[in-house]
Write a structure and sequence with these properties.
Layout (H helix, E strand, L loop, with lengths): L1 E5 L3 H12 L3 E5 L3 H8 L10 H10 L3 E4 L2 H7 L2 E4 L15 H13 L4 E5 L7 H12 L5 E5 L9 H6 L4 E4 L3 H10 L1 H4 L5 E4 L1 H32 L3 H9 L20 H14 L5 H24 L8 E5 L15 H10 L3 E5 L4 H7 L4 E2 L3 H5 L4 E4 L4 H4 L3 H7 L4 E4 L6 H6 L3 E3 L5
Parallel strand pairs: 1-2, 1-4, 2-3, 4-5, 5-6, 7-8, 9-10, 9-12, 10-11, 12-13, 13-14
Helix pairs in contact: 1-3, 5-6, 10-11, 10-12, 10-13, 12-13, 13-14
The structure holds uridine-5'-diphosphate-xylopyranose (UDX).
Length: 434
């Protein structure tokens, strides 16, 4: 199959490289000439484990190319994927669909022969109808079908999630389009991956419902963690105790500083907007959005309390800035709420993150950056873990003890054992554990 991928952001790049690796011929198109130049030089603009090698192999094999010229890519394609950004619109929180609609118009002008137009970007229910109307209006003779095919890729594990997914969801009423989609995902059928064919609107909603449900799960366990702290219980054991019930499931029950990232905050908010507009509010998701935002802010107070209620003039070594490990993504990261609150309270913050400091520098000011975890905490009054990178789990805790001026460790990701930390003489504060 020939595939055109419009947008070389996170989703477009990973999906394009993986489809090429499935044996299809993929052209990734982006208007950003600088980005395309870099990709053509073999530079990958995001940090995603394994992506650089996957791109290089498939470029080398002649199955993957990058261009700013949409014309041939779209004309030759059996399937054109729209994988452009859908950021939250400033002011009202609705998804901004202007990039999706611009892509639809361009595709309409350039398509040739039967073409399946696939929305990969996360788009509100009904967007496929709008894309179809735009194409029809721009090119009344076009032979096409619009399909919703949401992605469920986790940053840091995106290639695995693409190649060994729990399921593939395809929303369309067109049998011809279904055939093309089956062919595109054919290698997955060897692993017996379920492919779920639904209507387009249902498929669009599945994506939001999945992300909102996961956000509910995380927020639920975060509130249980607070309750554990209040009543002297252990949230990790609560997670295990409830998660072993197959109806609940063990995943996504790690308490922490609140969810962040490019999807959950944006998608939960967009879902509440869609639901309100439809006159059918999803109050549980409204509450989750509110509780999660408040939690991120509350984490700074937790640190201040752990340091005796006053951080003015004190130094805090912060480990981890990205919204989660194995990514350099800082979007809606808890660190963006926690660090400004600490510096406003008069603390001097020295931060270290293995991958995201270049991103953090654009978003955070009033702090210093260190070259390593040990440098960040050297002489500090407290060490605060915000992101659970493996290298922080593996720190030499004896060295940490001698590096810190005090013995305070605030661990917002529960990466150390409270018993072990107590034995080593730390004043150790984690999330939802005695
Ligand atoms: C998410 C979804 O998992 C993916 O399917 C979707 O399509 C895109 O959004 P991603 O944002 O990359 O992926 O990260 P994910 O691993 O889901 O984590 C999201 C946030 O939740 C992170 O801030 C993470 O730290 C937090 N989280 C996750 C928890 O606090 N506890 C958990 O148990 C799991």
């Amino acid at each position: 199959m020939r595939v055109a991928m419009i947008g070389t952001g996170y989703v477009g790049l990973v999906s394009g490289a993986c489809f090429a690796d499935f044996g299809h011929v993929v052209t990734c198109v982006d208007k950003d000439a600088g980005k395309i130049d870099r990709l053509n030089r073999g530079e990958i603009p995001i940090f995603e484990p394994g992506l650089d090698a996957l791109v290089a192999q498939n470029v080398e094999a002649g199955r993957l190319a990058f261009t700013t010229e949409a014309k041939d890519a779209i004309a030759e394609a059996d399937a054109v994927f729209i994988a452009v950004g859908t950021p939250s619109r400033r002011g009202d929180g609705h998804a901004d669909l202007s990039y999706v609609y611009a892509a639809a118009k361009e595709i309409a002008e350039l398509m040739d022969g039967f073409t399946v137009v696939v929305t990969k970007s996360t788009v509100p229910v009904g967007t496929g109808d709008e894309v179809e109307a735009i194409i029809r209006e721009t090119n009344p003779d076009a032979d096409f079908a619009v399909v919703s095919n949401p992605e469920f890729l986790r940053e840091g594990a995106a290639i695995k999630d693409f190649k060994i997914p729990d399921r593939v969801v395809v929303g369309t009423d067109s049998e011809r389009a279904r055939e093309v989609m089956r062919e595109l995902y054919r290698p997955l059928f060897l692993n017996e991956t379920p492919i779920l064919f639904t209507s387009r609107r249902t498929s669009e909603l599945i994506k939001y419902a999945a992300n909102a449900f996961l956000a509910v799960k995380i927020t639920f366990i975060n509130e249980m963690a607070d309750l554990c702290e209040a009543v002297g219980a252990n949230v990790q054991e609560v997670s295990r105790g409830i998660g072993l019930d197959g109806r609940i499931g063990r995943k996504f029950l790690n308490a922490g500083p609140g969810y962040g990232g490019s999807c959950f905050p944006k998608d939960t908010l967009a879902l509440t907007k869609t639901a309100n507009d439809a006159g059918c509010p999803v109050r549980i998701v409204d509450t989750v959005v509110e509780v999660n935002a408040a939690r991120k802010r509350a984490m700074a107070d937790k640190v201040i309390k752990a340091m005796g209620g006053d951080v003015n003039g004190k130094t805090i070594g912060v480990l981890g800035l990205a919204f989660k490990p194995n990514t350099d993504d800082m979007r809606d990261a808890p660190s963006l709420d926690i660090i400004p609150a600490l510096t406003e309270a008069g603390a001097k913050v020295i931060a270290y993150d293995p991958e995201s400091m270049h991103e953090a520098e654009k978003l955070l000011s009033g702090l210093d950056y260190a070259e390593s975890a040990y440098e960040a905490i050297d002489g500090a009054d407290a060490m605060v873990i915000i992101t659970e990178w493996d290298q922080f789990r593996a720190l030499d805790l004896d060295r940490v003890k001698t590096s810190l001026k005090s013995d305070i460790v605030v661990d917002l990701r529960n990466i150390y054992s409270p018993e072990d930390m107590a034995k080593r003489g730390f004043t150790y504060i984690s999330v939802g554990r005695p």
